[in-house]
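Example (one chain per record):
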Amino acid sequence: MSAKIPYSKELSDFLYSFKIPEEELSAEFSGWANTNPEKSFDDFVWNYFKEKAISFTKSANSESELYANMRTIYLHMACYKTYVNDNLKEGIEFLKGHYKYDLLQNQASSLKMKVSVIGDKDCLKCANSKLQRTLEYEVNNQRLPFADCPLSKDGHSLYKAPYGYSVKRDENGLPVNTIKKIPERNYNPNTKYGRRKLREHARQEYAGLSSKEKLERNVIAFIIMAIICLIVWFLLGTEGFLKWSQH
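Predicted structure:
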């Protein structure tokens, strides 16, 4: 007999976002409950969140996809922690992660951007916020969520003060791209020839970069790997991270 799941709006929203059937979650919970009879459903949910977050680091096909998935799951964790577990303090910490990945996802687009903070219209203190910065600056000096927002203290303002993004344009009105690209043909990555040509294209593009751009590319690659390692370490702890790193 399968264990009964106490569904909440927050849990259902999470399943809907990632197209996870309720039957899949029920089967996972039944197996988990049989091997962990002393633990609660909340223990299962947080373990499930962690497993899904780690799977995203392995299955993402691009930097942008990785950040988009992490952005979404951190928002669901923030809502679950705040409204189901009634723990606003920890919920806000997950919300900070959500906003961080929101910034990183837009930074991965390689377009020069400006960031605006859109204050909560219901808050007398934040509604008229005019804060605007470069994307690079906000990544390093994140303001959201507003620590001093009166409404955030009771969870009312959770996720109601988002970022707004605008693309920087040149004198011709065209978006400013941070990465130079060479013309690319549509090679089929499912063929040996296509994969070889795509690798050649990537090498040619890299060779055409300046020393500064190559350094930036290498630094970005290092940062992505470091972020993935930190995510896994944060979710699994030291012992779990060491096991994961051996695969």
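Caption: The chain is about 55% helix and 5% strand.
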